[in-house]
Amino acid sequence: MSIQHYVLTLRCADAPGIIHAVSGALLSIEGNVLEQAQYTNERTGMFAMRTRFESESTDIEALRAHVEQATASFDPIITLRNEDDRHRVMIMVSQYDHCLVDLLYRQANGEIPMDVPVIVSNHEVCRPIAEQYGIPFRYIPVEKGAKEQAEDELRAVMAEFDVDAVVLARYMQILSNELCGELEGKAINIHHSFLPGFKGARPYHQAYDRGVKLIGATAHFVTGDLDEGPIIEQDVERVQHHHTAEELAQIGSDIERLVLARAVKLFAEDRVLLDGHRTVVFA
Amino acid sequence: MSIQHYVLTLRCADAPGIIHAVSGALLSIEGNVLEQAQYTNERTGMFAMRTRFESESTDIEALRAHVEQATASFDPIITLRNEDDRHRVMIMVSQYDHCLVDLLYRQANGEIPMDVPVIVSNHEVCRPIAEQYGIPFRYIPVEKGAKEQAEDELRAVMAEFDVDAVVLARYMQILSNELCGELEGKAINIHHSFLPGFKGARPYHQAYDRGVKLIGATAHFVTGDLDEGPIIEQDVERVQHHHTAEELAQIGSDIERLVLARAVKLFAEDRVLLDGHRTVVFA
Amino acid sequence: MSIQHYVLTLRCADAPGIIHAVSGALLSIEGNVLEQAQYTNERTGMFAMRTRFESESTDIEALRAHVEQATASFDPIITLRNEDDRHRVMIMVSQYDHCLVDLLYRQANGEIPMDVPVIVSNHEVCRPIAEQYGIPFRYIPVEKGAKEQAEDELRAVMAEFDVDAVVLARYMQILSNELCGELEGKAINIHHSFLPGFKGARPYHQAYDRGVKLIGATAHFVTGDLDEGPIIEQDVERVQHHHTAEELAQIGSDIERLVLARAVKLFAEDRVLLDGHRTVVFA
Amino acid sequence: MSIQHYVLTLRCADAPGIIHAVSGALLSIEGNVLEQAQYTNERTGMFAMRTRFESESTDIEALRAHVEQATASFDPIITLRNEDDRHRVMIMVSQYDHCLVDLLYRQANGEIPMDVPVIVSNHEVCRPIAEQYGIPFRYIPVEKGAKEQAEDELRAVMAEFDVDAVVLARYMQILSNELCGELEGKAINIHHSFLPGFKGARPYHQAYDRGVKLIGATAHFVTGDLDEGPIIEQDVERVQHHHTAEELAQIGSDIERLVLARAVKLFAEDRVLLDGHRTVVFA
Questions:
Q1: pLDDT tens across B5-43, in order?
Q2: Is C44 helix (H, G, I), strand (E, B) or coil?
Q3: What is the tens place of the pLDDT at every residue in C24-34?
């Protein structure tokens, strides 16, 4: 019988005994902890935990019931996933393809453990990339005043392909508050600036005008409050006075794809837990 | 006769022949170029140049006249300095002493070629540090509604010690527009955030609340428009979800002092030239 | 009754039930876990764990007995420390003072939670720095052929001041194999290169000759095998073709002090555990 | 008549008047300097310069003659290139494709101004990538004891496609001293470690065993002395104790492709000049 690998995450109000309860539950099912991380936010009293363990059991529902029972008094929010059941991630893109290309390359070589069942775009230009990887490509243009209809199409595609997460890989349309709400904690965006600096449009031109010495990118969860969602990952690169706004954009595209790739990988491995407007990242 | 080292900077509207005119002037006085950098801002048409050269001449006024004559048709703004005539920099500080301590250490060991004839503070706590280095310390408190009087005292101190530049090393009072105007291009501030993110007060608490994954610091020229002066240098450090706002401040203090030290060194070596709201940094 | 904070570390061969045993022991003494990290080296089978917890008990020996009893079957190596009982760290230095100055500054402002009961040097130049901080300074020169005698003096100083750890803050003498053995896991050195590049003397000159584009520093535990001890922390800084070896050394000194300060802080908080020639760092 | 852009590089023994001679030559042909950088190695006395200028002339041979005549007394090594005449770069690869994919992507989107007329490999696996970009792919296996023959094939391919530079994008065969000599200053290799650490095979496994906290990559010119050629660019990424050697390799592959891409771009823009075993990089 082969060994199964599971990832458990758990969030609840802090109280003594949580770790003991979880470790007891895992021990009783002969689970062996491979990796465990825990964090208590002393300001909010939130306890967060991620445990990766191995077990001979293939009955994930029995495992889940076991853990739920052992921790019931803490009333936690629990996720439990067999690592073989990968997240099904829909990638959305507009015209800039560097993030899409990078994610597909990393997915294909096994670096990011996820499935990409479908790619959606409001433009046709990235279709050949999808075809090259043999991934269905759905063109959903967003006509002026018809965002609602386009989003219904999106929802239908998500249902059709059983998608459980979305990555906006330089997708340039703003999602409605309603859709953002539905996707809470499940949709990741890459913003091409070091937030909270340079929110909004044309951030590299803003950065040029401001004369910054470093430019950056930010991967964050999507919320209705544009450019304000919980940050997952950020990074920067040094620039100089002689770089034009266009060169900043080119330098920035390297940071964008790296930052987005790291964020998606962290998400795909269930290492990112929401803590209000912030994230806990068990890297 | 010993060799003298000079630093020349020159800014003007771009036109063919500037470099040739300068190199000709230097050649005619048997100056030998050791280091030269040049930049043309193609958007604004500004030409900027910095040349470090050696010469046997000790007559700086003759050298200056020579260069001015050779470049007169370009109507440039010129600075020329014998490297032995170091900038006289007044350091201003409030209660946080880490930037002050760092600057004095680097000044004393020769890393930053400047003189520090006087230290000014609106608090008494840093007096022992000044005394340890044998530098006059002037306590100029800023009473409510009496900023004008305090700034007059500042001006008097600057005159008394023949100061030609000011470094605000975590000085927490806001200078008046008038004083900022007088100090244009001569006063450097360290802001404890990665501008333009987290302008204003308590930036580390803002950063904590926003859940950023990197924190930073920004050294910039002081202008009347608070936190908006031309940026000289920036850097960041990675932080994690478990860091409190206080820990961010502690981590940040390392970046602050490094960034400020780099900016002051660049300034002290005449490597920073203003280009509107931006800086040209010939590092 | 005030709350006490404790740090527990534990290393043993991996086996199911360790975390559960520890969390049970802490629970039974009404300890509340604030921070916990765990790592299993799947190649060597070593399990390592660090737990920071709070408890109303002030009886550390009773706590230790409790944990030892609960984990006896795993035969672990355990350390347990009340955070108020800080490590007593002797700093050794030769002539370059930047690391010493930096450590004392950080110790004094509370950033590094350790005591520095004594400073030892084979030169007199750093005595004023020690005096400024009111720390005893012992001058122990190392005469040619008399290293053994000097090291006996060192041992006597360590005993006199009840020292339990040593930091070599640019101490330029090589310790004997015997002394290295006695200090295993308790002595930290800063090497002014990015090991394993540029072992040995004059690493910045080696770096210059090799034309590297980044220079670095390495903090590591001292072992008899020079420059080969387990690495605790490293960092680098970008350099350019025009930097001389002397400038590399100056740029490098910033990295040295940052890297050493981080390593000492990690050590002072019991975050560094040995794993053969490698370290586990629960940052 | 359209404006032409030229890049001139010049190396010679330092002497007064070089800059003036060059600027005079450019002025006399109505060239306008857009970007100029200069460096004198005070240890070796080598003067190096790169000038990017615009001119209405399309007669590059006349321009070259003009510059050569004006600088003849300095006996310089000169290169002059119209930016539209891009370097013709042959990429060589074995089985790891991440650097190849990255270079082709950047070439295609205009980030790296070069032509890639042919791709050569000692394996077949990368053929589809070449086909996707419509670039001829030549399979040249290297049989044991038949390296000489394989290298003759290489030379023939280089001649056939009029190649003037070579990039080894994780090409795992060692070139003969003879071929290295022929390619001096024209062939760039990416080594998957932060040289001079971890020379030789399996550097990530070496890095794991040594327990380093940062891993890196190095792009360097190829020489007969393996892993010892002049370094063009390096960078690093932070790693932790829990990363396996395989994970180090995966993290490292991001650094490899970034470092190689930067080095190739610098080379393609004639920004890298040899200075003995070191490089001058006018970034």
A1: 999 999 999 998 999 999 999 999 889 898 899 999 988
A2: coil
A3: 999 998 898 98
Sequential DSSP letters for C120-180: EESSSTTHHHHHHTT--EEE----TT-HHHHHHHHHHHHHHTT--EEEESS--SPPPHHHH
> Chain B closest CA to C82's CA: distance in Å?
21
Q: CB-based contacts of B256: which residues, under 8 Å, 6+ apart?
A: B98, B99, B170, B190, B192, B217
Rounded alpha-carbon distances, angstroms, from residue C140 to C93, C130, C178, C191: 11, 15, 18, 21
E strand or H helix at B210: helix B203-210
Interior CA angle at D142 toward D140 and D148, to 5°? 100
Q: Which of B41, B214, B240, B262 to mutate to test the interface with A (most CBs of A within 10 A)?
A: B214
Mean pLDDT over A181-189 rounds to 96
Tell me how far apart the alpha carbons of residues B147 and B138 are, in angstroms, rounded to a whole number: 16
User: Can you give the C-alpha Rg of chain C in angstroms?
Assistant: 20
- What digits encode the pLDDT tens for the residues D244-267? 999 999 999 999 999 999 999 999
B222 SS3 class:
coil
User: Chain A residues with CB inside 8 Å of C28's CB?
Assistant: none
pTM: 0.94
Q: Residue C273 and residue C7: Cα distance in Å, rounded? A: 13
Residues near D110 by Cβ (< 8 Å), separated by ≥ 6? none
How far is A41 from chain B, CA to nearest CA, in Å? 7
Q: How far apart are CA B208 and CA B176, in angstroms?
A: 30
Specify whether A227 is catalytic.
Answer: yes
Contact between B211 and A42 using a beta-carbon 8 Å cutoff:
no
Q: Do A194 and B195 count as a contact with CB atoms less than 8 A apart?
A: no
Q: Which two tokens stand for residue D61?
A: 């041979």
Interface confidence (ipTM) of the complex? 0.92
- How far is Cα B59 from Cα B82, in angstroms, rounded to an integer? 10
Q: Do A194 and B214 touch (CB under 8 A)?
A: yes
Q: Is D141 helix (H, G, I), strand (E, B) or coil?
A: coil
Q: How far apart are CA C199 and CA C215, in angstroms?
A: 13
Neighbour-count burial for B70-80, b at 16+ CB within 10 Å, e otherwise: bbeebebeeeb
The average pLDDT across B196-201 equals 86
pLDDT surpassing 90 at residue B186? yes
Quote the pLDDT of residue B1: 60
B211 vs A278: CB contact, 8 Å cut-off? yes
Query: What SS3 class is residue C11?
Result: strand
Cα gap D188→D183, rounded to integer Å:
9
Strands (E), D125-224: 137-139, 165-168, 187-191, 214-221
What structural domains does chain B harbor? 4-82 (3.30.70.260), 87-281 (3.40.50.170)
Produce one character per residue of D24-42: b if its CB has 16 or more CB atoms within 10 Å, e if not: bbbbebebbbbebbbbbbe
